[in-house]
Design a protein that fits this description.
Shape: flat
Radius of gyration: 18 Å
Number of strands: 3
Helix content: 40-55%
Length: 129
């Protein structure tokens, strides 16, 4: 994502692209630090749509960029996150994911939230009754 941004802004090759990418990454880190100074967790969808059927993206070069766009900022910033299934469509058997993010080094809080969510949903076949 950062490479694409750098090239789209006509930034020169090599070091300039790297420096620009690091500046953008630092902006993500600053934004997440501000967010986590007020909130314990950030919860969002994992992707903009259901999981896609096998072969649905064949020949689509932008597939990865579009499906990952909600996860990339947290990955670039280096904060912890987890994606858990939050809904399964009975007709297609395809899932929607729930992305839970927490501040740096807050993995325990993150796993507790994911576990609590999974235990509180009735459609998860892997949760013991």
């Amino acid at each position: 994502m950062l490479g694409v941004f750098g090239m789209s802004k006509n930034v020169g090759a090599g070091e300039l692209v790297y420096v620009t990418a690091q500046k953008i990454r630092n902006l993500y880190i600053q934004n997440f630090r501000e967010l986590f100074s007020k909130y314990d967790l950030l919860i969002s969808p994992s992707s903009p749509s259901y999981a896609l059927s096998l072969g649905a993206t064949e020949g689509d070069p932008m597939f990865g960029e579009l499906q990952d766009m909600l996860l990339e900022p947290s990955s670039l910033a280096g904060i912890c996150g987890i994606s858990v299934p939050m809904y399964r469509d009975d007709k297609t058997n395809l899932y929607l994911g729930l992305n839970i993010m927490a501040d740096f080094f807050q993995e325990e809080k993150l796993l507790q939230a994911a576990y609590a969510f999974e235990q509180s949903t009735s459609w998860n076949s892997w949760v013991e009754e």
